[in-house]
């Protein structure tokens, strides 16, 4: 995802840095997850949970940044954007501190699932608005599939069951389901960046 964003998204695109940050956060999460699942002790466990939680909160920030372009289009908008980002970051650090004080798996799951549902809701709101306005395009299909996989994979974390063939438990299937998500997200981000820039050029052409 990171490589594709760097290569295929124009430097002038309003949230290229946000998508690049998403890619970096994703890489950190996969590294921490691999460490935890191969060497399970308190430090790798904390790194796995905290990194995953950070990515979920970052995904919410990225969704807000993308769906509301006015946040990057004016000085006041940028102040609101910074305030939103700071608030999410402070909430995340407060959540981490509470877990370090008293690690509660259910408490962590509640906040992570809540943030995921908020993010899905933000994108669905935007998706319905675009479809209702007759602005259908290929990127919307990638987004719909991304949301479906994201919410579907979360069910594996909520609905536990005995391992299939004594091998594939719910958590392993959750990880398998998340494999295509960065690929779909990269496709969506690139297509939407090109769509927005083409739309801007068209509008500027009409003005002239």
Automatic annotation (TrEMBL):
<keyword id="KW-1133">Transmembrane helix</keyword>
<dbReference type="Pfam" id="PF04080">
    <property type="entry name" value="Per1"/>
</dbReference>
<keyword id="KW-0333">Golgi apparatus</keyword>
<comment type="similarity">
    <text>Belongs to the PGAP3 family.</text>
</comment>
<keyword id="KW-0472">Membrane</keyword>
<feature type="transmembrane region" description="Helical">
    <location>
        <begin position="80"/>
        <end position="100"/>
    </location>
</feature>
<keyword id="KW-0812">Transmembrane</keyword>
<keyword id="KW-0732">Signal</keyword>
<dbReference type="GO" id="GO:0006506">
    <property type="term" value="P:GPI anchor biosynthetic process"/>
</dbReference>
<keyword id="KW-0337">GPI-anchor biosynthesis</keyword>
<protein>
    <recommendedName>
        <fullName>Post-GPI attachment to proteins factor 3</fullName>
    </recommendedName>
</protein>
<dbReference type="GO" id="GO:0016788">
    <property type="term" value="F:hydrolase activity, acting on ester bonds"/>
</dbReference>
<feature type="transmembrane region" description="Helical">
    <location>
        <begin position="140"/>
        <end position="159"/>
    </location>
</feature>
<feature type="transmembrane region" description="Helical">
    <location>
        <begin position="171"/>
        <end position="191"/>
    </location>
</feature>
<dbReference type="InterPro" id="IPR007217">
    <property type="entry name" value="Per1-like"/>
</dbReference>
<dbReference type="GO" id="GO:0000139">
    <property type="term" value="C:Golgi membrane"/>
</dbReference>
<feature type="transmembrane region" description="Helical">
    <location>
        <begin position="106"/>
        <end position="128"/>
    </location>
</feature>
<feature type="transmembrane region" description="Helical">
    <location>
        <begin position="21"/>
        <end position="37"/>
    </location>
</feature>
<feature type="transmembrane region" description="Helical">
    <location>
        <begin position="49"/>
        <end position="68"/>
    </location>
</feature>
<comment type="function">
    <text>Involved in the lipid remodeling steps of GPI-anchor maturation.</text>
</comment>
<dbReference type="GO" id="GO:0005789">
    <property type="term" value="C:endoplasmic reticulum membrane"/>
</dbReference>
